[in-house]
Amino acid sequence: MAAKNHDDYTVGWICALPLEMAAAQVLLDEVHEDLPVEANDHNAYTLDAYTLGSIGKHNVVIACLPYGQYGIASATSVAVQLLSSFRSIRFGLMVGIGGGVPNEEADIRLGDVVVSKLTNTHGGVVQFDYGKALNGGEFQRTGMLSQPPQVLLTALSKLQANHIMGRSRFMDFLAEIERKIPKQSSPLARPTQEDRLYRADHNHVDASSKTCSDCDETKTVPRPSRDLNQPMIHYGLIASSNQVVKDSQLRDQLGRELDAYCVEMEAAGLMNNYPCLVIRGICDYADSHKNKEWQGYAATVAAAYAKELLSVTPVIRIDQTRTVEDTLLDPDVTTASHSKDLSRPVTPSPFQTTPPAVINQSELGGIYLGTIRGEEIIPRLIQDPAFWRAEINTLIRQLLIIHPQWWVERTQETAKTMNDFFARNRLTFRVNILQRRSVRPGYSGHDRQYLDALFHHNLGWLNGFSSEEGVPEINLGILNLWSILEFLDRDCR
Ligand SMILES: [Zn+2]
C-alpha cells in the first residue's frame, strides 16, 4: 500500500464514545498506518486520536471525542481540529447512538437507525433549549443548523431507492462483524435484553438497578411483533442539546412540538462548523428506564448503515465539491448558519459559486441521479443543460393540463406523459402508478419550488412501507426529475 498523506483523506467520521469508534473501526475495509507528525502541526498532540483507513474507495478519518467530554462544545472542538489537520475533507458523518422518540409516524425500536432528514425549514438537526421545556414552556429552537452537503443528499436518495427495491447491504456488513468477532463475547452484538417501551406514566422502579427487572411489564406500550434481525431505517429530525434526556414526558414533548425522531447530545455542535449527516443507532427511549445494554449493537447498526451510504457515495475529487473549509469561509453560508431568526427560511447553498465540475466518464460508475445511472445521463446534461431544462419545463406544462392542482403521476394519463418524457429522452427509467397516501401539497405556480415541496413531502423520501400493500410511499418519477434539476442547478450553471 502506497504511503498516504493528510490530503488523501476526504471523509471525516466523528464518534462520541469509544464504543462507537470501535464499531467504526471494525467496519473499515483497510486500516492505514498513522501519519507522521509534521513539525508545524499544532494539532500534533491529537493526531494519535485518529484512526485512518478506507471504506471502498473513500479514505476515512475516524475521530472520537475526548474521553468523558460529551456534548455540543466538545463535538465542535473535535470537528475544528479534524478540519485543520485534514484539509481535504469534503464531508462529514456523525455516527453513533441516540435515544428514540417513538411516534405515530415511525415505529422506532431499539437497534433501528435514525438518519437526519433535511426539510424546508432546517438541515435535519435542531438544537433545543432544555431548560425552557423543564419549566413547562414550549421548546425553543436555539439555533438553525445548516444542511448536509449535496453529495450526501444525492447518495441518500440512491440508498433509499436501493432499499425500496430490496437491495440493502448493511445487514451483510453486520453479518461480517459477527464473523470477525464471536457473538458471545462481543459488546457489539445484539443483546438478549428485551426491547420494552414503557408507557410515559410508568417510571423506572429501582433507580439503583441497571435493569428493568422490577419494572411492570404490563405497563409497556403494545407494539406489533417484528423480525428481530431486521433493524429499520427512519429519516427524521434529530434534536440535540447539552443535557441528556431521561424523561419520557420530555421526550414525547420533543416528538409533538418538534417532530423529533431522536435525541442526542453532539450533532448541534457540528452542523454549522462541519457540513455533515447524522446517523444515530437507537439504544434507548430517552426515559428513566434507559441503560447501556443496547449501546454497542445500536452503534454497530449505525456504522453499518454509514458504510452502506459511503458505498453509494461517489469519491469526490478536488474541484467537484468545495472543501468544508471553503464552505465556512463563504459569507452567505456563515451569515445564514449563525442566524437565529427562525422566521427567515435558511437554505444555505454551498454550491452557488462552484464552477462546473469536470467529470471524467470513467468516474461515473456507481453515481446515480435518483435512480438513473450517471453514465446514462450526466454527460448529456453537461453537454446541453438548456435543452434539459426546456424538456422538463414542457413536461410540467403537459402535466399541469391534466391536473392543474398537482402534477404527479397517479392516473394512466399522467404516467403515460411522464413515461413519454423518459422514453423520448432515451432514459431507461419508467414510472409505475402508485396509490397516493399522503395529502399532496397544492401547486403554487412556481415549478421549481413545487418540485422541492413534493420531494420533501414524502414523495422523494421513503417513509416506511404501508403494512397493507407493502407499497413504499415514494415517487421515483419525482425523485428523478428533482435529481436532474438539482444536478443542472449545481453543476451546469
Ligand atoms: Zn425500568
Automatic annotation (TrEMBL):
GO biological process: nucleoside metabolic process
Residues covered by the Nucleoside phosphorylase domain: 12-303
Signal peptide (from-to): none
Gene3D superfamilies: Nucleoside phosphorylase domain (3.40.50.1580)
InterPro entries attached to this UniProt entry: NLR-like, Nucleoside_phosphorylase_d, Nucleoside_phosphorylase_sf
Region (Disordered): 334-355
Molecular function in Gene Ontology: catalytic activity
Protein origin, superkingdom: Eukaryota
PANTHER family on file: AAA+ ATPASE DOMAIN-CONTAINING PROTEIN-RELATED, ATP/GTP-BINDING PROTEIN-RELATED
Protein name per Swiss-Prot or TrEMBL: Nucleoside phosphorylase domain-containing protein
